[in-house]
Design brief:
Blueprint lengths: L2 H14 L2 H8 L3 H15 L4 E3 L4 E3 L1 H28 L4 E7 L1 H18 L3 E7 L13 E6 L7 E8 L1 E5 L1 H7 L13 E4 L7 E4 L5 E4 L3 E5 L2 H9 L4 E5 H9 L4 E2 L9 E7 L7 H14 L9
Helix pairs in contact: 1-2, 1-3, 1-4, 2-3, 5-9
């Protein structure tokens, strides 16, 4: 067993919080990870981890080795990247997490194009709207949409995301075209389940803000489904323009209060500060920023 593999198993176990999670990250059996850490402890003649049925705790020796081991692994990755840079080849695996609707419709083509340019890259992609723990799950890069909360994660904004309130022509024929935010109150909200229930806040051309609360008639965890429900006349929905733009372009949906604005959110690339940002990940982030741009193509409707 190489010393590198022992240190890697130990550092990943501490970062992930368990042998099981570290094994998933390294694509190895749990027993293999445990054995590597035991071999490391035996070779050093020191206990590094206190193992209980519920958690792993670093000893003093383990804490000191973890910090040094993490730097050693980062230095090794730097050396690998330096060689790769001289060869002008991007290679290796990238574990990526992204929202389902945006990922499949907009991120997918960008990833395929990136791999065509760099065929030695291997993607492991989790398209899901769940909140992933980048460190515990060994994710190299996450793409997220929203307003970033205070976090230890490092972020780069890839593009602005406009929010659009919309309904079908048939639904507006039944309820009337709203002239003010208050006119929306009788309408049924097709609500994304991650969206806060404190209402829709519109800003008028004069700069006046008004918040209106709608009763949900449907709640779901997928924006494409809610857009389809709005097209079918089931209610009104507030969704990112990257979901609604095609239906807005061909008239299946109509924007509500188009002279008003809604709070804008952002599209971000996130990575943990404990994860070395390799050349391949930097190149991917640059590629995604160029693909989306400051004026995203999905806002052209």
């Amino acid at each position: 067993m190489s010393r590198y593999e022992e240190i890697e198993a130990f550092v990943r176990t501490v970062e992930a919080g368990s042998f099981t999670a570290a094994a998933e990250q390294l694509r190895l059996a749990k027993s293999a990870i445990s054995r590597r850490v035991q071999d490391l402890e035996r070779r050093l003649g020191a206990q590094l981890l206190i193992r209980t049925t519920r958690q792993l705790t670093l000893t003093d020796d383990g804490g000191a080795l973890f910090e040094r081991g993490k730097r050693l692994l980062e230095d090794w990755r730097e050396a690998e990247d330096a060689i790769g840079q001289r060869a002008e080849t991007l290679a290796g695996a990238i574990r990526l997490a992204a929202p389902l609707s945006f990922g499949v419709k907009h991120l997918g083509p960008a990833l395929i194009a990136f791999q065509e340019q760099h065929p030695a890259i291997r993607f492991d992609v989790d398209f899901s709207d769940r909140r992933v723990d980048l460190i515990a799950e060994g994710i190299d890069l996450a793409v997220r949409i929203g307003v970033l909360e205070d976090s230890s994660l490092i972020a780069r904004k890839l593009a602005p995301i406009k929010m659009i309130a919309a309904a079908s022509p048939a639904y507006l024929k039944r309820y009337g075209v709203p002239a003010t935010p208050s006119d929306l109150k009788p309408m049924g909200d097709l609500r994304y389940d991650n969206r806060r229930a404190d209402g829709w806040t519109f800003t008028s051309p004069e700069g006046l803000r008004e918040t209106v609360k709608l009763e949900p008639v449907m709640i779901a965890s997928n924006g494409d489904f809610l857009a389809d429900a709005a097209i079918a006349g089931a209610g009104v929905t507030l969704q990112p323009s990257f979901i609604l733009y095609e239906a807005l372009r061909d008239g299946r949906l109509v924007p509500l209060l188009p002279d008003h604005t809604l709070p804008e959110v952002g599209l971000y690339a996130l990575y943990p500060p404990t994860r070395h940002l390799s050349k391949r990940i930097r190149a991917l982030v640059d590629h995604l920023a160029e693909h989306c741009g400051e004026a995203p193509y999905w806002d052209d409707w």
